[in-house]
Design goal:
Layout: H1 4-9, H2 11-28, H3 35-57, H4 63-88, H5 96-120, H6 132-149, H7 156-196
Helix pairs in contact: 2-3, 2-4, 3-4, 3-6, 4-5, 5-7
Protein name: CDP-alcohol phosphatidyltransferase
GO cellular component, one term: membrane
InterPro entries: CDP-OH_P_trans, CDP-OH_PTrfase_TM_dom
Length: about 200
C-alpha cells in the first residue's frame, strides 16, 4: 500500500514537526523540544532515501513528478529548518535579517543547481564535497551542540552571521565555477562551429 508519492509527501508533516518543535521551544523556553527537529531530519532522510527506490521497484512511472516534488519539498524542508533556528534565537540578538540572508543564500545554491542542470544536463547536488547526507549530519550535530552546550542560544550572535558569511563566500565561488564551465562550453561550441563552417 505504501507508494513512492506517500514517502515523498511525508516531507510536509516532517516540515510541520520542525516548525512545531521550534515553536514549542519559543513558547515554553524548554530547549529539549528541539530534539523534535533532529527527529524530523532523520525521518525526512529515511523517506527521501526510499521514495525513489520504491517508485522504481513498483514501476510507479512518476519520474518527472518525483523529480519536481522531491526537490520542491526539499526546499520547503530547508525553509522550515531556517525558520526553526530563527524561532529559537533570542529576540534581543536581532538576527532576523541574518536568517533571511541564510534563506536567500541557501536558495541560491538550489537555483545554481537547477540553472546549471538546464544549461548542461548535468545535475549536481554536491558542493565542495558536501551533499545532502553531510548537510543532514551537520544539522544533527549542530542541534545536539545547541541543546547540550548552548541551551540559551547565546552563541547564535556569533555563529549565525559567521554561517551566513561562509554561505555567501561559498556561493560566490560556486557561481564563478559554474560561470567558467558554461563559458568554456560555449567557447568550445563556437570554435567547433567556426571550424565546420
Amino acid at each position: 500500500w505504501l507508494e513512492t508519492y506517500h514517502l515523498t509527501l511525508l516531507t510536509i508533516p516532517w516540515t510541520t514537526l520542525v516548525i512545531t518543535s521550534a515553536a514549542q521551544v519559543r513558547n515554553t523556553g524548554e530547549i529539549s523540544w528541539f530534539w523534535g527537529v533532529s527527529l524530523a531530519i532523520i525521518l525526512q532522510y529515511l523517506t527521501d532515501l526510499f521514495d525513489g527506490a520504491v517508485g522504481r521497484a513498483r514501476n510507479t512511472g512518476l519520474v518527472k513528478w518525483g523529480f519536481y516534488m522531491d526537490h520542491f519539498l526539499d526546499y520547503l524542508f530547508q525553509c522550515g529548518l531556517i525558520v526553526a533556528y530563527a524561532l529559537i534565537a533570542q529576540t534581543e540578538q536581532n538576527l532576523y535579517w541574518w536568517f533571511f540572508g541564510i534563506l536567500a543564500l541557501t536558495s541560491g545554491y538550489m537555483v545554481n543547481s537547477f540553472l546549471r542542470f538546464a544549461a548542461t544536463n548535468e545535475f549536481e547536488i554536491y558542493f565542495f564535497g558536501i551533499g545532502p547526507t553531510e548537510i543532514r549530519i551537520y544539522f544533527l550535530a549542530l542541534n545536539a551542540v545547541i541543546i547540550i552546550l548552548d541551551p540559551a542560544r547565546e552563541w547564535f550572535s556569533i555563529g549565525v552571521p559567521t554561517y551566513a558569511c561562509l554561505l555567501g563566500f561559498g556561493l560566490v565561488v560556486l557561481t564563478w565555477k559554474s560561470h567558467a564551465k558554461l563559458w568554456a562550453i560555449d567557447m568550445k561550441a563556437k570554435h567547433e562551429n567556426n571550424n565546420d563552417g
